[in-house]
Amino acid sequence: MASPLPLLEMPVEVLQRVLAHCHPREVSMFSQTSRAAYNLIYLPNDQYLWRQLYLNHPLDHPEVVEQDRLEQKVTFSSEPRPIVNYSERLTGLIKAERAASNPPPTVAEETDALNVFLSLARELPVYSDTARVSHNVEWLEKTLENSPLLATQPPSTSGPTPTDDQRHMEGMRAQLRCYLRSSFKDTEVVLPKPKEKFFLTKRNMSRYFVYDLRNYTSETRWGPFTSDNRVNWVHVEHLMNVVWMNLCEYPLRSLLRPKIGASAVRPHSATGNYLTDDWAGVEGVHSSQCKLFPVGV
Fold it and tell me: Which of 17, 106, 107, 140 is at 20 to 30 A from 279, Cα to Cα?
């Protein structure tokens, strides 16, 4: 009877195909078993293994996404795009994934994780009838749902004033919460009382912020902006909370509502003909509705 073939004596192509079906963490653990295993994983002759690990995670093919965005004129670039480093890209996503469930102990690591999520959210694939599903959208929603990394930091009336770094990080958290479906009340299901109370409390806090005229100054151009001319995502999140919760109540609940969630920020996800100059659908006939309801005396 022939003796079994040692794993590392298998053809490299076969071994890479086997490893491509493993989780990246398992592949990393395998690389620690020997120098030969380490060289196979981290010093390969090509990117086949890491490309397959990336796509099997599963995530959208970054090169296909970028090409579609260029063809649809979502992004413009006269410079040749650098070659995608799948090993570096996937390693960063796995670290961010771990940080979402167990926030890292240092501010630098937490900032890196938030930047990874935001980078992916800013480069979502173009929506089309043939590409309605996005693995990146599904991964973002699943990974960040109820994540302690995005826990809302309540405003403090006492204690030290937040530093610029702390305000910047809270702005990144707010931006990600604006992108996620789980950040807003789901009217399609009956929520348990604690969850319902959470969203009502969240709406009240946002109302206090939105209707506080002290948050609208000439420095912020009377809108959701910072004094250095950037988007104030904390302000934007409060606006979205108020508007969405109002739309969730009767009688507005019966009206057509905008999409929410990461899929709603994909390019061309809104209805319209993006091949024309009026891709935003501004031209044409607009209509409005007004419903009056009797109020008992």
Answer: 140
Type of residue numbered 146: N
- Number of Cβ within a 10 Å radius of residue 182: 16
Distance of alpha carbon 145 from alpha carbon 184, whole angstroms: 11
Q: CA–CA separation, 94 vs 83, rounded Å?
A: 20
Element (DSSP H or E) covering residue 199:
helix 193-210
Q: Which of 69, 33, 27 is closest to 48 using CA atoms?
A: 27
Q: Are 171 and 234 in contact (CB under 8 A)?
A: yes
- d(CA 246, CA 119) in angstroms, rounded, equals 31
Instruction: Tell me the residue length of the chain.
Output: 297
Q: Name residue, tokens 């295993």.
A: 37
CA-nearest of 55, 3, 6 to 33 is: 6
Q: What is the CA radius of gyration of the chain?
A: 24
Give the SS3 label for residue 225: strand
State how far the Cα of 181 lies from the Cα of 142, in Å rounded to an integer.
Answer: 10
Lowest mean pLDDT among 22-36, 109-123, 190-204, 222-236: 190-204
Q: Is the dihedral of CA 12, 18, 23, 27 positive or negative?
A: negative
CA 91 to chain centre: 17
Whether the per-residue pLDDT at 65 is higher than 70: the answer is yes
Q: Are 269 and 259 in contact (CB under 8 A)?
A: yes
State the Cα–Cα distance between residues 262 and 179, nearest whole angstrom.
Answer: 5
Contacts of 34 (CB under 8 A, 6+ apart): 8
